Structure formats: structure tokens, C-alpha cells
Queue: 2 jobs
Job 1
Amino acid sequence: MVELTGSTLSLEEARRVIFEKESVFLSEASMVKVQKSREAVERIVKEKRVVYGINTGFGKFSDVLIDQGDVEELQLNLIHSHACGVGDPFPEEVSRAMLLLRANALLKGYSGVRPVLIERLIELLNKQIHPVVPQQGSLGASGDLAPLSHLALVLMGEGEVYYKGEVQPALPVLTKESIFPIQLQAKEGLALINGTQAMTAMGVIGYLEAEDLAYQSEMIASLTIEGLRGIIDAFDEDVHIARGYPQQVATASRIRDYLKDSKLTTKQGELRVQDAYSLRCIPQVHGASWQTLDYVKEKLEIEMNAATDNPLIFDDGNKVISGGNFHGQPIALAMDFMKIAIAELANISERRIERLVNPQLNDLTPFLSPQPGLQSGAMIMQYAAASLVSENKTLAHPASVDSIPSSANQEDHVSMGTIGSRHAYQILQNTRRVLAIELICSLQAVEHRGIDLMAEATREFYENSRKIIPSITKDRVFSKDIEKTAEMLTSLHWQQYARTRKSAIKGGNN
């Protein structure tokens, strides 16, 4: 089980909770802080002190005072009016991550919610009842208001949930699981929705998948090196130490490890003096993407443990400050940066695909066809890869450079971080398919060269992949192969894969 404290949640713990459905329990010490924070809110209400979000309106209505008898209705109206999400729902894993991250943020004890609210979030998480949350409608400041409102609806017995593989109305599911809907009290609605947990949850899912894909890209590239009889000298450790980037050094180290006993690689001058950049510069390009992923990981782990609602309560309620921690700019920039990094893995992969299929660039069968001319082989797979990388270039346009004023210009600069995180995830799916195409082509190329000449590591990967991807002996509907290969990569958690081999990942980036 994972203990939530509000301050110590890691991406690896998040992975276990989100994907492996590991249960969560709440730190007793943190819950004491939550209770004290709640008592402070109740004193504010009782003493009729004017505090934003507790007994005032929201946004441009912050100067409108609310009668003490109406503070609960204020919270209910807030959730109803802000549940304006549209479009397809987030993947269920993202919804699960939102529950985890929102509970962790409230557990810091700065938000003034009752302990029961956090307990209910964790109960939903542990019983795998996940809110259905539309993807579109957030500006990324004041936090993810629309998406988080749809999460809050479920706590109130409204909205829809994912439950046992189906989308169902929330109330019957809560009743079945003996979970009682909550009537929100002072500040609790605002505390639930004023945060960055939609963009961060989407970012966490994207990062975890991107990390696996970046490792996979190195193994796939290693097969391509063998298929093209690439020059191994370019991966010499001295070359990469001379430049000094640890991630570049680590990438080169892993590829040397994968290819250490290969009889298909060559030395410089043996067949040619130099390889094209898409082979020779793999450590430099992939390493730069790893640098970006390391940056993204740092920002996500900070944000996962951050207090991002407003106002925040300090000093037992003697200091209540309306600030701007809900502003998603740190995650917006990280997501835009991740978009570019993952898109580059696809860009260089597509160039390696071209070298595998273009008879003017290799000595393999044209387009890896079993009967060139009569059968087209991998010709149009390269088209598909080119289309995907082109689409990625559009999606990689930074969302964070845009801003539209809202709430009558009270909220006059917003992050668009949720758009950035969604586009990063789309780029990730496209890139996985590009790498799937490279894998299909590289498997065919090494088969042509002789699988008995492959390195131990790449041959093991070849044999495992061939269980999913049959050899190209005749033209067929390759769309199915691409999707099956992408599904294989999605299910392959690379750290676990590496631990099953003697040559486990060396010089890891994270």
C-alpha cells in the first residue's frame, strides 16, 4: 500500500496506484493538520470574517458577500455552474490519477476541508470508482475548474463514473458500495476544483508512458542499426563523455550494451566511413529527449505534492491568503517541452524507417518486399509514419504561449496547461505507432541479414516481437500489424523487461 502524506508522493508510487491498482492509505499526522485547517474555516464562518471563497462569491464576484446561511448553497452552486467540461472523457487512468492527486494536495492541510472529504476521495480510488471527466473546457487557471467540477459531482452523488468496465450513473454505484454522498460545506467546493490536478494527472500518465517509450526507442533503434549494418564506433563511450551530457552518455551505454556481441554491426571504414545522422546521432538526439523528460519528471513530482488551491490557510486560520498557486504555468511549460521531446523521437525514427525501406539508401530488398513490384512490402508504412510525424509537428505548437482573459478580466492570464498535456498524450500515441513501424521494418531487415548474427539482447527482443508480428512473406493489411505492435509496446513496462535480462538497463536516466 502507498501512504499519502501530501508531500512525498513519487512518480513510481503513482505508477503503482494508477496502473497496478495498488491501494492507498492516509497519513495520520497529515490528517491532524487537515482537521486543524478545517477548524480554522469553521471559526472564520462563525466569526463572520470576510474571506474569499468561504463567504464571498468567486472570480469577478469576489466582492459579493454571502450570508452565513447560504455558504453551503454557495459551494453547491459553484460545482454545478463550473461543471462545463465538453468532449470525450479523459482515459480512465487519468481520472484515477486525478483522485489520487487531489487527495494528496488536500492532505497538505492548507485547504480547510473536512477529513471526510479526503477519505471519500480515497474510498473511490481504492474501490476503483472513477469519475467520468470531459477532456475539454479548462484554461489551466484558476486551475482545472471544469474538469475538477466533474470529479466533485461524483462526491455529491451526481455525474457518471467508470465502474467495473462500464460507464454508469454515480449515485447507484455509490449506493451499491455503501458510499454516502457528501453535502459540501464552507470552502469545500472551491478547495476541490481550484487546482491543477487534471493537467498534472494527464501529464503523469503521459510521462510514465513516455519514459517506457524512450527506452523502447533505443532497443528498436538497435535493431535498425543491425538491419543497416551500422557503425558501432559512433557509440564509443569516449565520444559521449567528451560532450558531457549524462543522458547522452547513458543512451550510448545502453545501445552498446544491447549490441555488444552483435556480428551485424560494423567498424568505421569496414563498409563505409560514416553513417547518416539518424543512426550516428541517436545518443545525441535521444539523449536530448531524456534531458527533457528528466526536467518534466522534476516538475511533475513537485506539482504532485503541491498545494494548488485558493485561498490557503496558515497559522490556524490567523493568516488566510488569496494567491495564485492554481496557475498551471509550470506544468504548461513542462508539457510543451515534453511534446517536442517525444515528437523528436518520432522524427528521427521516421528517418530510420526511410533508410530501411529505400533501396537507394541500403542493400536490402526494396521496401522490404518479398516480391518487389508485385508486392509493395513496407512502402506505405513509411507514408503512415511520415503522416504521423507531420501531425505531431502541428500538435507540438506550444499551448502555453496562448492566453485568453476570463471572468470579466479578473483572470487575465491563463496557462492552457491542460491543452498542452492532452496534446502531449496525442503526440505520444502517434510516436508509439511510428516506432511500431520502425520495429516492423527492422525485424524484417535483421531477418534478411541473419538472426543468428544478432546480439543476444536484440535477438531476444526479436523473438519476443515475432510472437506478435509475423514476418512479411506476402502483402497484407499492415494497419493491423501496426496497431498490434503499438499495443505490445504499450503493455511493455521497460524497467520490468530489463530486470528479466542479465544485461539490465545501465546508466539509467531516472
Job 2
Amino acid sequence: MRSIQERNPVPIALVGLVIVIALGLVAYRADDLPVLGGGTTYTAHFSEAAGLTTGSEVRVAGVKVGKVTDVELDRTRVRVSFRVKDTWIGDSSGAAIAIKTLLGDKYLAISPLGAAAQNPDLTIPLNRTRAPYDVTQAFQDLGATVGRLDTVKIAQSLEAIATTFKDTSPEVRHALDGLSALSRTISSRDDRLKRLLLGSDRLTGTIADQNDQFETLLKDGNLLLEELNLRRQAIHRLLTATRALARELIGFVDDTWIRLEPTLNALDRVTTVLEKNQKHLDKALSVVGPYYRLVGNTLGNGRWTDAYLCGLTPNEYLEPGSYPENGCMPPKVGGRS
């Protein structure tokens, strides 16, 4: 067996290219595979598509559960195929084309009703489906229709009708005169009406072009509201915990008050006695201070005590000049030298 280096690289490259293309197709159509994609495909009849396209979302109670796989014409009706996963669809379920954004994006809303499951081989009939009224498309059609009107000919026709009925009763003549004035007014305002309708058409086109930005803005607003909701929940938990802590502190005070009350009363009596004897305490402290200072000086030289004895021997038994001149006062303040 020859190695890869010895083989012709062209067939190997072709086989590798085919494998890469096949893997790409499998990855692109992964949702349609029975094992990887999964889900069940249903069909529904609508009176009109109303802007619903392949790839539009399928929602149940506002939650995305699948997508539209095909939108095709079935004689005088529109046949919509959609696939959902892990979602129960009943035999009385309804389907409606709903407006997703203010700019006209649509999605398929399913109402899962019924006692039994919907047979995927049976199409949901028209009496259980509903299509929305598209205001944007209606204004665009109105603009196109008005733009094709020949207002000059309409005014001439109304003038001819007024001339024809000029010999009729005054009431009819007045009505036709008013109709003629109306036609002249419409004709004089024709350019303005056209500009207004053209401006409306450009406005709708601009809004449609900015659809992605509006959708991003709405998503960001939704994220902001979710974050505010999380903050509100955190504050709610904080207030709930604070209230629980307050209840625990109240219970603790109630439980310990019986034991704390005698102690606090005794402490109050002690402070009252100390307050009454404050002058005596001040005097005692002023006297005790020097006494303890002298005791400290006496015992502050180590393991012995400094002492000075005077007057044990009468002066007449001492030689002149050997007894202290100042009596029994120490020769040096603070002790012997």
C-alpha cells in the first residue's frame, strides 16, 4: 500500500472537497435532520400570508418553540408549514399571524387547545386561523392608488355633471355646485396630496430600512427592564431580610427583658449611690493618691523595704553633734542616702 505522499494529490483534494461540502450542507440543514433537528411539522391554511416568511418565529404564549419552514400558495389560500419541538398542539388549536415589532415583522402565534393531539397530516383549517390587518401595507396601497388617479379628469367629469343638472331643482344645483367646488379643491391640492403620500411612502421605507436598529433598541430596552426587575427583586429580598431581623431582635429583647430588668434596676441604684457620694469619692481618691505614691516609693527598690528609725536612743546618751539637727526628719527627702 502506497503512502499519501506517493499518491496523486488531485483525487485526494477532490474527495476532501466533496467531504467538506457535504459536512457544510449537513451543518446548514441540521434543523431538518430527523435526529439532530427533531420536532414535529404541522400545516395551516390562511387567507393571506400577511408578511409571514420562511424562518419566522413560532410562539406559544409568547415563548419561541419553533419556526416557519415554508409559505406557499394553495389555490386561493396560503399554506404555512411550521415545525415545533417539545410542544403540545391540540386538535382545536388556533394559529394567528401576529405583529412582532412596530415595523411590521410577523410571527406565528399558536393557541394549544383541544383534548387530543393534532394530527400532523391534517391541515389546520381557515376557521381556526387568523391573519392581521397590515396598516403599513394599506397606506402604501392607498398612496399608489391615489397616485394613479387623474384628478384633472375627475374635476372635468364633476363639472360636466354640474352643467348637466344646472336646470334641476335648487337643492340639486346647490349639491352639484358643492360637488364641483370639492372637485376644484381636490384638483388644486393634487400636488400637495402627492407630496404628502410620497413623503409617507419614504417614511415607511426609511422605517423599514432601520428595522434592525429599532429591533436592537427594543431588545436593549427589554434587557434594561429585566435588569431593573432583578434589582427590584434584590431590594425586595433585602427588605424582607431586614424585617425578619427586626422581628428576631424584638423577640430577643422580649425573651431577655425579664433577666435584664433586675440587673438594669440594680445598676441604676448603684449609679444613684455613686452620684450622691461623688464628693466623698473625690476626697478619698485625692487622699489615696499620695499614700499609694509613698508606698510605691517604699517598695520600689526591689525585694526589701526602705525604713528610717529615729528617736530610739535619747540624745543625752549620744555624743554631741551625732544626733540629727532637724529632729527625726530623714537627712534626705525620700529615704537614706
